Amino acid sequence: MKKLYLAFYILLSGLLVPSISYAAADAHGELGGILFSLFCLVFSAQVLGWLASRLGQPRVIGQVLAGVLVGPSLLGFVHVNLTLQALAEFGAIFLMFAVGLENRLRDLLAVGKEAVIVAILGISLPMLGGYCFGFFHDLSQIQSIFIGTAMVATSVGITAQVLNDLGVINSKYARIILGAAVIDDILGLAILGVVSGMASGEEVSAIGVATTLGISLGFVFAVLLVGVPLIRRIQSHLNPQKISGGFGLIISLSLGFAALSGVVGLAPIIGAFLIGMVLAEVSDNYDFQDKVHALESFLAPVFFAMVGVQLPLALLADSEVLWNGAVLTIIAILGKWLGGLAIAPQQGFEVANKVGIGMVPRGEVGLIVVGIGLSTQLIDNKLFAEIVVMIIATTVFAPVVLRMIIKPVVAPRLKEADALGTSDGKGI
Amino acid sequence: MKKLYLAFYILLSGLLVPSISYAAADAHGELGGILFSLFCLVFSAQVLGWLASRLGQPRVIGQVLAGVLVGPSLLGFVHVNLTLQALAEFGAIFLMFAVGLENRLRDLLAVGKEAVIVAILGISLPMLGGYCFGFFHDLSQIQSIFIGTAMVATSVGITAQVLNDLGVINSKYARIILGAAVIDDILGLAILGVVSGMASGEEVSAIGVATTLGISLGFVFAVLLVGVPLIRRIQSHLNPQKISGGFGLIISLSLGFAALSGVVGLAPIIGAFLIGMVLAEVSDNYDFQDKVHALESFLAPVFFAMVGVQLPLALLADSEVLWNGAVLTIIAILGKWLGGLAIAPQQGFEVANKVGIGMVPRGEVGLIVVGIGLSTQLIDNKLFAEIVVMIIATTVFAPVVLRMIIKPVVAPRLKEADALGTSDGKGI
């Protein structure tokens, strides 16, 4: 306990000293403010993340709480702005890029059928549950559909971080989760397109929906089916010695494909994950993985802390919000979990259980959807808060339960595991 | 030559493909735009930096040109905005943090006398030269003083990058340059405070100037004189194994001290450099240097490219602007070079010559000063362009000449050089 007091002391003094002097300085530019906010996010996320892991909890929970602590609800050091949102998004991009680097296409294809089942059920069941919630609360048809849509998205970043920490990111169930999350994002995108079109009173055409679906599916297949053979072919022409200086090129690849992914309408993290998977084919020959992890270990906590910054604590004081939020949470968890359990007959309960739990977090994807709903006045403040409760609860639920049901594997990376010959099925 | 064509081809196709699809996509959010801009900056800076090094030129020049290429003057993919400026500043911060990690206080103190001489002469001579330029062009007293102020600041980041590339960042002359740059920044800050106070018609008090100077000097001494003994004392309590996960803490230290440095009115890069120097005392025991270099190799090119993005090419078509810019450039180079040569009697011509050239770049510090001048309407567009010509010319001049007069050392880092026992005076 002495160490915990020490950690709290470090956190407080570390945050207070610069803050006081910062407040005391009469003039500071916008850039200075951003620098200070980023410092608060990185520092508090590190300390609370470390504290959480000391208490046997997942680091991400500490990092989300760090955001709550320094955000507008409590200390008020950090407010949402475009630059911090961009930094948080870069964190998510590099996180998923690093996850992609540890997954190969052939491994993901091997679990393709399971991923499709999990994704489709994991979308249908929460959609149905959310619709019913709205129906029983006398909400309009479009509002009920919107609640369902907010329950569809899987925020795979949080699960990926936990599985990475546990050293099981290349296990079979991790691959099913990742594959299902990609499919989820593609279908979820199409649904969001339809719903926001309906909300704004537009005519929703089957051709429009099919085009959106076709473009995003085409993007995924183009990257994988062109990229993987291409990189294998040019691999023999690349000299590892010369490439070692090309870390910036690797980074620009991940940024470029994240941007492209955004262009076709998918989440940028999907593009980063896909190009990471392409580079995974040759990553054994080059030494960029550690450097990508360095970037990720700095920026991914910013992403999780920003989730906390965006949590409106005050809304949680309303008992009706909490009650409805709890109902939505149960629907959200059951929907994804039952979707995962559907593969139990083929894969066994243990794998199916982990997949189901791993699909639960709604995280930032849910926050984005609900943000659209609020800004288009499709939902009011109360419904917004209820859905946010569900998003936060599912986001916190998954890491806690995953750590209870998964035994950590010591070797933290695929490469090391491969070297030991234990790559397949470890941790399952 | 075949390879150069190939590189151009890669650059063009790499930039055009996403750009066209980006332009074709009818809807993309602000975050998507930032992602795309960052991709353009990182990618073009990597390719043109590589091209420059193939042509025997310093990488930074290629990176600045990359910014010109993708910036509003040519392709128009990247426009100045707060987020990109913040990312560029993070690049400069991590660059100077990495430089600090390779310098120890005792090494810098050993060249303290020389650094003070170089800094004071390197401020006085360009100040005087700039004032005379204004006087002979019939500008007002305050405008003449302002031109002098814009010529004072040393942008040590560019020199540090070149010296780092050449493997001589821990040589004696590099230390003199770094020490002089810190002093430059402190005195330059005081001068800028006085001049902008005079420009806005405020009463400039000796007490105000002395307070500014005292606070920034106090900050520098406090960080170094408290930090260095403190980290040595707690070093024995830190377990390298446990700290290896604390890379985020290291990063938050650099961000925190950069922010603090901004609070006391110094450039954030000075704080990052100082805390890097404190951590240099223990960096041999920990493995964070490679990770810091990974961050720096991604973000520092963004900083240099953003210098290019801010260059208004159109203004360079005016022959009077070019002529006056050339005169200012000669004054700027001579002023810093003669300041460096003042230490020739003690240190020999070779060291003094390298120090003088190394102090020449005005870079982003000059751009900040001139930006203040333009926004307060102290200078007009033409004078602005002339000073910008001087800033760009000095910024390009120094790397080119430094590479002509310094023989590269193979070992890229202090640690490796130490291991070989060649740390002292190498490359001199």
TrEMBL record, chains A, B:
Query: Per UniProt, which keywords does this protein have?
Result: Antiport, Ion transport, Membrane, Signal, Sodium, Sodium transport, Transmembrane, Transmembrane helix, Transport
Q: How does it sit in the membrane?
A: Multi-pass membrane protein
Molecular function as annotated in GO: antiporter activity
Bilayer-crossing residues are 33-53, 60-80, 86-103, 115-136, 142-164, 176-199, 205-231, 243-260, 294-315, 321-343, 387-406
**Record has Ion transport as a keyword:** yes
Record InterPro entries: Cation/H_exchanger_TM (IPR006153), Na+/solute_symporter_sf (IPR038770)
Q: Which domain of life is it from?
A: Bacteria
State the compartments where it is located.
Membrane
Query: Mind telling me which Pfam families this protein's record contains?
Result: Na_H_Exchanger
Q: Which GO terms describe its cellular component?
A: membrane
- According to the entry, every stretch annotated as the Cation/H+ exchanger transmembrane domain falls at 44-405
Q: What is this protein called?
A: Cation:proton antiporter
